[in-house]
Design goal:
By secondary structure, the chain is mainly α. Helices cover 34% and strands 8% of the residues. The protein has five helices and three strands. It has helices at 14-31, 61-78, 93-101, 112-122, 169-181; strands at 51-57, 84-90, 107-108. It has a three-stranded parallel beta sheet with strand order 2-1-3. Helix 2 links the parallel strand 1 (51-57) and strand 2 (84-90). Helix 3 (93-101) packs across helix 4 (112-122). It is elongated and about 60 Å long.
Amino acid sequence: MKPIITTRKRKMHKKFLYIIFSSLLLWLIGCTSETPTESEEVQAPPPAGESIVIADIGTNPDALIPELQPLADYLAANLDGFDSGRVVIAPDLDALSQMMADGEIDLYFDSAYPSMIVSQRTGSQLILRQWGANTAEYASVFFARADSGLTNIADLQGHTIAFDKEFSTSGYFLPNLYLLNEGYTTEQYDTLDAPYQMTR
């Protein structure tokens, strides 16, 4: 029996470790005993099936897991070597990057900015272009209340602006980069009553 070596880093489940241990034990017994007849031949347990694991970032797993589980099931049914699909939700980009580096997840779907960060941190490869909200392309939009008096980017001087999650491409990275290119300086605060205002 030759050992099976895989280049894919994954944490071994107890069941899988049990099968490996049992197989090695049977091999050692076979090396020290006579070759059994066909009727006496000992069969090793069948190899354990494996789950394909896809991941996302969020604070509400109960909502995200049902949304992604059909995709995980579809991939497991149509890719060789997998017998089930599983979804895991990481609380933030750091945790997801660590899980990817440790081989705990196989696929991660997100927009360009967080995907590039995970790729740079872990060496993972970008292989697909994901559509968002059933469209291939979309853009960031700045908007203000109708009674605010703000009509263009230049009017933001001395005002506060809110962004989406800090790993969002269209809701944080691109609009923030645009403001920096326009000469604004930005600083992050977690409350609406922070004293800081945008300046140029």
